## 1
Amino acid sequence: MKATTKLLATAAAAAISMAAMAGLPARADEEKVVRVYNWSDYIDEEVLKDFEKETGIKVVYDTFDSNEILETKLLAGKTGYDVVVPSAGFMSRQIQAGVFQKLDKAKLPNLKNMWDVVQKRTEVYDPGGAHSVNYMWGTTGIGYNVEAIKERMPDAPTDSWAMIFDPDVVSKFKDCGIHVLDAPAEIIPAALRYLGEDPDSKDPEKIKKAEELLMKVRPNIQKFHSSEYINALANGDICIAVGWSGDIFQARDRAAEAKKEFSVEYAIPKEGALMWFDMLAIPKDAPHPENAHKFIDYMMRPDVIAKASNYVFYANGNKASQELLEKEVMEDPAVYPSEEVLEKLYTTTAYEPKVQRVVTRAWTRVKTGQ
Amino acid sequence: MASSGTKPEKTGQGLFARILGSRAPVIAVPYLWLLLFFLAPFLIVLVISLGDIALAIPPFTFKGGIDLENYALLTQDALYWRSYFSSMQIAGLSTIITLLVGYPIAYGMARAPVQWRAALLMLVILPFWTSFLIRVYAWIGILKKEGLLNLALESIGMIDAPLTILNTNVAVYIGIVYSYLPFMVLPLYASLEKMDRSLLEAASDLGCHPLKAFWLITVPLSLPGIIAGCFLVFIPAVGEFVIPDLLGGSETLMIGKTLWVEFFSNRDWPLSSAVAVILLLVLVIPIVLFQRHQARLAERDG
């Protein structure tokens, strides 16, 4: 019933927004406000305060915790946000749907600071960087409880996807709890990579192969969820999580702060892992596009983005900021991987609606085991 | 409280109607409410369910024609009827457990000394003062591996290894029974409290065993409460999303979650609208039956 009400509410909101779609023309002199919609726990609040102090533009800051929630709002239209932060794969589809406006690069002088290594990879999603600039990037890998793993399998291949995809290995850890991201677009590519296939494959036959592999290991997996693993790993309720790098660093730090008897580590599997990018972009109907450009340009200042990265432990796409980063961020190979590992990281593109349906069906079967 | 509250309410309503001079405006208010917040959104969902998915704002189109294609898809894929069926099953079993737990509570309350009843009723309602979401979250802390329940059981030596309850269907049942218990207890209490106790005395005088008297007198007389309570638990439990999402495991298949996936992961608004329309129909049937029962009851009482 609750879900129905929620859906009804969203549908009603959509209808209202459709009626209001006429849109407001951008005003020449904007009020001094910028509305930002970003991932939760993803910024140093001081960065926002500094921006307000320097420009006199007030930042209204809201957060979300999944790409799906952001996308649903963007596709319903009229979000009222000036700057949003979708992941690149989702963003490329949203660009096709006509969600974002083109950036006015004359207003973004700090673009010169950006890192070509990251820019080259985000080109796939947004040719020429016409609509977006990178905020942070990271990898999807394996977080684990060092002591619990050692106890059950002293020679565990912690640096390999075999930890999850080899039935003989993964079954050893069934009793201590395994969580996997509830994100088919990240786990199916990982399974394909482990099988030696193209992780970005859109071929239903290949996706079927990934599904079969996942089906084999799923009895060992306790839950598919995209945020609970941070707490569960930090508290010792689970011993393995396939998750996002920065989230696992958070779990690692929380466990250390709580003086737990175990430690949490993160590994980028040697077979290669997904490299993902969260991008700053401006919706077409943003009420304050001028301020949005100012905000994005501010975030590309080396000192500002370095401060943000030092706080959230994610790598950024800003070359000039690298000398300002703290050592424990810059020199952590799990945050800034070596050239060699960087070579192995792969990117994926969005699925077409028809293939998306195949993927979701496969994923539901994997999750429910039927 | 519940039964004594009905009378002043009736006279209050009469007064309200008299002040306005006519019944029509009084009746119009709830109908207008339903029209605005139930029928209109429902029609929007119904219309969207006839369209096709599109990569646009909003993400659906009627260019491919208005048809029942999405409903046809619901019948072709086993996922959907499995979800509906599994939701009904979970909701049904939860309702039975809630009834078995709630009946003794309501019975005890109705038999308690009059001066206690208000306090007992308060205790049943008290959980509503804390957000539903926070209460479900609290169950994570109780049921997890290193949680309160496992620690308690281990410390008294009942178990050697922690039980895995969280992220299983058992946790979903616990969550639903806990969350919906007040909805079962309140109508049961209302009907049990109204019961004429001299009937039981008469049965006892005539040599009827108390258990038999309970079965032959108390249960039938509390039937309206049982039916009301069961509907109040079953209907929202079928579409429940939060409890299976937080407490359930990956194998927990419920229609609320299936709908979420269609809407958010697949961005398929037309198909998820079709799922919602069917869900509504599945739920409307028991509601209609319930309404009819209530009407019959009102006739008998009036």
Note: The beta strands of chain A are 33-39, 58-64, 83-84, 132-145, 178-180, 223-224, 240-244, 264-267, 274-281, 315-316.
## 2
Amino acid sequence: MIVPETILTAARQDLAAVKGISQLEEIETKYLGRNGKVNSLFKNMKKLAEEASKDVKEIGKELNRLKQELERLITEKKELLLADGGTGPDIDLTLPGIRPRIGKLHPHTLVRRQMNDIFKGMGFSVYEGPHIETDEYVFERANLPKNHPARSLQDTIIIENPDILLRSHTSSVQSRAMENLELPIRLVVPGFAFRYETPNQTNHFIFLQYEGIAVAEDLTMADLHGALETFCKMFFGRDTKVRIRCKYYPQVEPGCGLDIQCKFCGGKGCAVCKRRGWVEIAGAGMVHANMLRMNGIDPSRYSGFAWGMGFDRIVMQKLNIDDIRKLYNGALI
Amino acid sequence: MKLPLKWVSDYIDLPKDLRVFTDKMTMIGHMLDKTIETDTDTVIDLELRGNRADCYGILGLCREAHAVFGGRFDIPNRVALPEEPYDGFSIHVKSPDVYRFYSVVIRNVKVAPSPQWMQTRLRDYGMEPINNIVDITNYVMIESGMPLHAFDLHRIGGDRLELRNARDGETFVSFDGGTLTLQSEDVVFANSEDKVLGLVGIVGGKESGIRDDTTDILLECAAYNQATIRKTLYRYSILTEAGLRHTHDLDASLCDFALPRAAELILTHAAGEGGAELSGTRDYHPKPRKLPEIDFDPHEVTRLGGVSVPVAEQADILRRLDCVVKPSGDRLVVAPPPFRTDITASEDLVEEVLRIWGYEKIPSRALSSAIPLPVEQKELELEERSRDILVALGLDEIITVPLIDGAVIDAMKDPLKPVTIPVLNPPTANHTHLRTSMFAEHLEVAHKIFGRGDTTMAFYEVGKTYRKNEDAVHQPPHKPGFPYIEHRELTALVSSRDAYWDYYRLKGVLETYFSELGVRGITFTKEDDRTLSYPFSLCARAMQGGLCLARIGLVSPMISKSVFSLPYYVYGFVVSIDNLAKATFTLPDYMPYSAFPAVILDMSVQIPAGVQAGDVLATAQTGSELIREVTIEDVFARDGIRSILLRIVYQSKERNLTVEEAREIHNTVAATLEKTYGATIVGRNAP
């Protein structure tokens, strides 16, 4: 039968020219409306059957196929127009998306990586050492001989009296690095340390220290100042003001404290910085000649700088965590 | 150390702007802690570091300020003490921990309130006035940093004072009325009747102290072994002002100032009618400290400090700090003052020069020396990658403490108990042992998660476990024979109400984890040994060749339900990061698609009891080079016979594979399975 084919071809041409929904609706009425072309064919079925010398039933089937095909073409065009017009099929664009489930990294990991990346950019490698340590590495080689006053400030968790303990700082790793690696070295040591302490909101018997050490033939306090200033500017913001001031630590000489200017008051002094205008970030200094010597390094030829930061406090400030215990009891997931 | 500023201005002129003073003191090593306004004065509290015993006195800090700001520095008046010994009373030192004991007997004193100005200053400092004698000892201690103590000469009991180590179990009634049971490490004052009168350097007893009717006193000033005093101080928690000062390295020479200074004040402010009388001194000081003379190369300031300070300027700075400086060629010979017990070597002098010259003048220089070759610690790199992969797979990272409760170890019936390391001084009653695995803490976390109403959990931790080293095999960097070992492990734990987390899903996580790391050729074998499978009741080992990389399984409900009251099955795995570091890694396979169509054929295989489906799969996978992939589409059991449905994808990279060819290989694979495992092939069709 010729007629359906002709109508289909015409409809295709019409649809191709359609530019908007209202135009499409006109086309739909033209072909499929009550007085549309398809209905008028259905009304003339008998006549058509005679003309084509076919059974009326046969013609009915053909017309139904024509109708279905037209409906399909119009629906298809409608979807295209809707999607193109930005209204889409039945989508509420404001409903929340269905998110794939991914896990969360621990705050330590986020901040430690940020710090590691900064120092890696300055040629430092990440280094680690054992938690169970000997008195020799925790104290003797850290220039804290027996009876040194600072020992009493570091009440240790003891495994075997008196010589085996959980390291009370990560300076032990500095010694192990100096002993085991070829000079020059540039290392950061993010690691846990342990002290005999009852956990409360601000103190715990476990804490993370972020230490670093560089030893070479030509390092001075200017290098220390430069490296740590670069770190502070990258970590705390480009506009961060940094200062070093004299401060005693047994592991270094000359020693210094590293401060950043208080961001809250701009150095004028406020409650956050205890009216000092500055906030202490790290203890640092030139590696003590005794420490170099004890680890087999000639202090007249080599020099080095080292620093240590209390990492948990920085993490807590950065991520608004109010209780150090939450870092260690699974409460953050 | 608190500095009441009116008191300070007795000795030096303060800068007009207080901020200039506190900033500079902070820069040279005495950080401003806080400023306190009292009714009568402004008090500056400076944080003191442990090495500067001399700065526990106002004069010590004034000397520091003077070195920076210059101006006047007035040392207070002292009376000349008689050198001849006092009569009728003797001192006997029997402890090696007493370095110096310098004492004077003053007769005819009158105990009364001290002058108002002195009371005000003591209050500004933070001490309550008591009476003129006691106040003067405190006043001079605060002024000089050197503690003093006054005895009522007639209440000591007898004619001698002995300084000796306590006898174990000996008791002493302290000033506040508490009874202390002493140890032989403590050093005490004892009288003629061998009665303990006080702990030297820390606290005196009530009976021998100054009272209103006291007329004659023994005033003493001493230097002790600071370590001994420190131990006693912390042992009995008697944190007196005197005791705290004696825990630092106070130089015995400070007695030469403090004792005549206190005597001067007593003669002036506590004399009885007709005047008080100095009736002699005794000085026990057998081995005065040998003072160091340091051969100092001024270039060290540049080498360590990174700044250039003219030699003359260096010498001047050191002299302002009371060092004796003698030029010797292009070097300096420097003798630090005796009270500077912290200066012993060249690097100490570098710090002295730098801090007075000004740390603020040390430039900030970008690191410019050669960058060392990066140090590889493969375990650390693997730990970081593990964290990322597991987070991507939907697990949260946690960190738990490595100290656990011994009672929990017992409750869990941990087979590793014999090698668990106890700590001698647990920080709390629930943290008594180092963990041999992370399960105790992790199941506790799980308990909290379900306890707060969550219905699913999935987390992991990367950390260390510890155990006694029974085979004397050591972990680097410990020396061989070190009795303890540390393992790096990754433990993951999952559980959910809706059974989303089951063994297969977790195993999928582990498999993806390995493939993402580039660790291939992993085979899983069942672990039947109850000790090795702990805490799993069903456990498989993930092996690469002979290397066990992980254990995975169902946490025994006897533990998860009975001990931790967890509501659902808990599955977990433990990866040994140490072993992982020894594994073989391959880069990911980026296999281009074959341009030729694949032929897909299924095979239904009945496998006899005891045969592992995983083995059958592995054999099928290696059946032919034309096999691209084999998957298990279904596993079912009927009448006790297990069947698996294998789907095999045959594909060539070079040509069209005909269905006939594929069927031929399919039949060969079937024959291999029948032969190797006694399997029965019950169907082999296109899907």
Note: DSSP finds 20 helices and 31 strands in chain B.
## 3
Amino acid sequence: MALPAPRKKLSTPESVYLVEVIKGMFLTMSHVIKNILDQDRFRTIEYPDMRKPMAARYRGAHRLTTRPDGKVKCVACMCCPTICPAKCITIIAGEAADDPAEKFPIEFDIDMLRCIFCGFCVEACPKDAIRMDTKIYEINAYTRQDMVHNKSYMINLMDGLKPEAEDVYRAHPEQAPAGYTFDEKPVA
Amino acid sequence: MAKVKINDTEIEVPNGTNMIEAAKLAGEEIPHYCYHPHLSIAGNCRMCLVETTTPRGPVLEIACNMQARDGLAIRTDTAQVLHMRKSVMEFLLVNHPLDCPICDQSGECRLQDYYMEHGQYDSRGLDPKVGKNKRQDIGDLIVLDAERCVQCSRCERFGDEVTGTGELRLMNRGDHTEIGMFPGDRLSHNYQGNLADICPVGALTNKDFRFQRRVWYLKETASVCTGCATGCNIQVCHQEGEVFRYLPRRNDQVNKSWMCDMGRLSYQEIAGLKRILKASVDGKAVEPDVATGEIATRIRAAGAAGVGFVLGTRATNEANWALLQMVRANVPGARIFVVEGNDGGQAAQGDTLLLSGDRNPNTAGARLLARHDGNVGDRLALLAALPELKLLVVLEDDVLGRLGAALPPVVFFGAFKNATAQAAAIVVPTAHPVEQDGSYINRQDRVQRVRRAVNPVGESAPAYVVVDRLGARLGKAPGTQMVAAAFNGMARAVERMRGLEFKGLGAEGRLLAPEAVTAVPGAEAST
């Protein structure tokens, strides 16, 4: 059986409702005036146009890194699908004929609907081939199939997003990832 | 017998037992690379050093070259031994490329295992590693990576002592020593796959299994190869219903540690195009139940005198037993035959090592049941009876190819589309040996078990189940759906099988009781 909550005994000015309303309005107006005078104090950001700076260790969407010659670093050693607790990584290995690396992934799929973003795949990778440093958290699609990120998508992930993200970074350089370099294009 | 002491355990082993084997019996694992139970002693990897006591104090000796004698005492756990193992590991790994991510051996590599157990040192290497040739195509089934080799010489000894071909040789000196072959030479024998098995590291790997699966994903089921009458013991390596490779399983009485490449690659036919997936009647696909009903109808129509049954030399004992029981109970008077020979009718070549010229896994089993029944005809009897037969029910074998004569309408129970299956009026698919439990009898009269590793493909079911269903349609099922019950019933009835139990066949199989003296010796000489 629920017990009635003890009620606080109100003082006389509190019991007169109007006084408290006016006190609240004063508080609101003081914030309005402070914000107008000092705009850096804004708590709200205009989301699609502005981004919160993510922590350096933030685990976003996976990307596959490449060697200087453009080939994917991954050698399909199967360490990441082995460690993956969500069993969301599927790799089909193949033999690279002219490559000293011998082995490469013909297919490398990550089912983002199953991924739990634990980052074990990055930890397990002996070749630094998979990273979650993209800081991308908007992972969405219209179909389940599109939520499976494949090899070429994950290789080109940063390329596709660079121009869009760069505008934000130019406007707010403090939000750019550490070590981010801008293209030589002058700011209009 | 000799009483030896391994650490604090005292055990009795036969005189001259290798101390690595003796230690294994005592529950102590001595790490080793070059020692192999079925090859000569080389003693060059130095990993198996153990401590013995001599008049001049404790001394390190290699266990693989030490034979058990009374009073011998070794220790495998002293500080000196552990330090030595660590040092040997460091030495072996000085020039190792550490390409485990792309190496097929990872997961079953002695270098990895022993590094984690006995190595765990920090590298002191300052000079660049000595590079050698990688990815050398040296045979139809083998890829050689000279950098990964630890010069244990197992493959060299295998070529010298087992196949007698001697292609692989250690060349050069010092840290430039590498395994290789003479220019223009190439592995061409039928036992190449064993080289990949005995290589304790990733220097020799199997081309067929190359990059297919990581070994730690694979599950293993102990089974028997059904490629020929030898019945080599194998491990079936499979994942999620797909078989990826066969590995030989040690059985000193049958195949030691080896198997031939033909048998090794026969896993490919499990999911191959030659499998029968659907039941059919007169070329039309039907449900297996409908086909079974149709078979029963046609057997009744043909009558006992007009129908013949053929036991399978490729079928399990249980399937043959089921057919025998089913016929005797439901179609008394029908004739039963066994047609020996190879599918397609061609004579096949065997060799002196393992491969038998008889490519059927269960010729001895079919022969045994035929003799037990006492009224089973052979190939000539079938040829003579052909004009009177209106229907021939065949279990697994390619009777058409073996006889080379036109057959009456055929009912075929089998797994593969051979000539008989293609000519058959009714076909019911049966399971492959890795898809069912059962037993085979090899050419030494050894009863060995196959175990179900994966599910039967398509609509197939084990042959003893299919025959049991047919029996139910005809009136009396032989009750062989439970394989252990079928085997035990057979073992009680067949004289030479007395005392055998399905559960008691074990990993190495059991020999049949010797044939009674009055019987005509017809069995192939065992090797």
Note: Residues 288-306 of chain B form the longest helix (19 residues).
